Amino acid sequence: MTVLVRSGVGPLCALARAAIPSIWRGNYFSSGNEPAENNPVTPMLRHLIYKIKSTGPITVAEYMKEVLTNPAKGYYVYRDMLGEQGDFITSPEISQIFGELLGIWFISEWMATGKSTAFQLVELGPGRGTLVGDILRVFTQLGSVLKNCDISVHLVEVSQKLSEIQALTLTEEKVPLERNAGSPVYMKGVTKSGIPISWYRHLHDVPKGYSFYLAHEFFDVLPVHKFQKTPQGWREVFIDIDPQISDKLRFVLAPSATPAEAFIQHDETRDHVEVCPDAGVIIEELSQRIALTGGAALVADYGHDGTKTDTFRGFCGHKLHDVLIAPGTADLTADVDFSYLRRMAQGKVASLGPIKQHTFLKNMGIDVRLKVLLDKSNEPSVRQQLLQGYDMLMNPKKMGERFNFFALLPHERLQGGRHQRNARQSKPFASLVAGFSELAWQ
Ligand code: SAH
Q: Which residues belong to the signal peptide in this entry (predicted)?
């Protein structure tokens, strides 16, 4: 499979880092020397130009938010961008084993925390629904283990197009879906295996209750603010219209301090940083929920531990794409700062990770699962696909080292305290957390 996964960081970032100016409306960074035919005036570009003309330059965060999730024209709202025909490919789309191992992770956590009589599986940004579909297949296969547990599925998705694809994948629409665009629960149905499933636009609308949360390649699409250190202090990067070339955007630097500077650490040593307040809000919400009702959250994404500088980039047709060119036609993304996620969880819940994808999947038993599937298949093309998928997920040069796993857990889970709320058996929690150490069934 010759695909470029979205985690690639290429020359574009080096260019952006070198070229951002230190003077507002003086020397400025143009996003590149693209010829006019490569910079089509998309409906999103027109919209942004009107917006900037009327209210002034916008932050990179506002740009990302508009380009990706504007309800009328956003990149994510009306298209299926995943897979080989799309702009990028993700682990669950590469191999069924990925979702299966995550399914095992949730069951392992459910068992380790006392086998509650019910839980919600909540996924943020479910893409095509492939990942949750693979997880639910594992739940069905391990039905004897989960037989007395009431499970419901809750998907947080802003994309109309992708939610329709998820509904088709997960429910086959055997039972008609209930739709109510005006309600926080905009769609409801029943999965192929008979589990109630609901769709929301925001995490805060998902009922509070014992839940397992999953966010795979979700945090990287949340809007980031970009900053550069100058002799006058931190200055935020904005996006403005290029006065030299009509219908072209450029980066500029704010002339004075801006409010998002509050998200930069006082002892920050980098000279360029990206901060993502929305990620902090979501981690806080997840932490409060887990501290209150139990459960766990598993976050998997590409990212760093507070070390990288310029990672904001675009992807179109599996290639790096200039972020300011033809907005609305390419994915925009930035590496997740796991040190920030950890800080936002601190004091409320325990966190584990980030650890590399190849370590996590190895600990979850990927080699055993691959062998079972290979032994079951005589079809050379299926065997080849399984092996190629394994290589893509595990190879350190591909996704193995670029992707990280990070978990939020109630403090009692790691301290061996007793969980009073949802556990049928009140047994101590303390056992190793699968993935972060080798999977061991209790
Ligand atoms: N998890 C999937 C898809 C990743 S792409 C996979 O790994 O294959 C990012 C997903 O997040 C898409 O489903 C997109 O529509 C959704 N998304 C993007 N911004 C969002 C937001 N602000 N709130 C909820 N979902 C969002």
A: none
Q: Whose CA is nearest to atom 16 of ligand 1?
A: 125
Query: What residue owns the CA closest to ligand 1's atom 26?
Result: 125
- Considering only CA atoms, which residue is closest to atom 17 of ligand 1? 125
Give the CA dihedral 387, 393, 397, 400, nearest 10 degrees. Answer: -140
Verify cis geometry, omega within 30 degrees of 0, for the bond prior to 223: no
Q: Half-sphere exposure of 278 toward its Cβ, with a 13 Å CA cutoff?
A: 16
Distance CA 258, CA 237 (A): 10
Beta partners for residue 337, in sequence order: 304
Beta bridge partners of 350: 409
Residue whose CA lies nearest to ligand 1 atom number 2: 127
CA of 396 from ligand 1 middle (Å) equals 25
Q: How many angstroms is it from 156 CA to the middle of ligand 1?
A: 8
**Where do the domains of the chain lie?**
40-78+225-275, 79-217+276-413
Between 421 and 205, the higher pLDDT residue = 205
Contact (CB, 8 A) for 177 and 259: no
* Pocket flag, ligand 1, residue 76 (CB < 6 Å): yes
Dihedral (CA of 310, 311, 315, 319) sign: positive
Model confidence over 197-254: pLDDT tens digits?
999 999 999 999 999 999 999 999 999 999 999 999 999 999 999 998 889 999 999 9
For residue 223, how far is its CA from the centre of ligand 1 (angstroms)? 12
Q: Compute the radius of gyration of the chain from its Cα atoms.
A: 22
Task: Please return the burial class of 185, using the count of CB atoms within 10 Å of its CB with bins 0-12, 13-18 and 19+.
Answer: middle
CATH of domain 79-217+276-413: 3.40.50.12710
Q: How far apart are CA 217 and CA 201, in angstroms?
A: 17
Q: What is the pLDDT of residues 53-99, one digit of tens each?
A: 999 999 999 999 999 999 989 999 988 889 888 898 999 999 999 99
User: What is d(CA 118, CA 256) in angstroms, rounded to the nearest whole number?
Assistant: 52
Question: Ligand 1 centre from 126 Cα, in Å?
Answer: 6
Q: Relative to the CA of 76, which ligand 1 atom is closest?
A: 15
Which residue, judged by its Cα, is nearest atom 21 of ligand 1? Answer: 158
The CB of 216 under 6 Å from ligand 1? The reply is: yes
Dist. CA 218–CA 126, nearest whole Å = 8
Asked if residue 127 lies in contact with residue 162, where contact means CB atoms within 8 angstroms, the answer is: yes
Task: Give yes or no for residue 374 having a pLDDT over 50.
Answer: yes
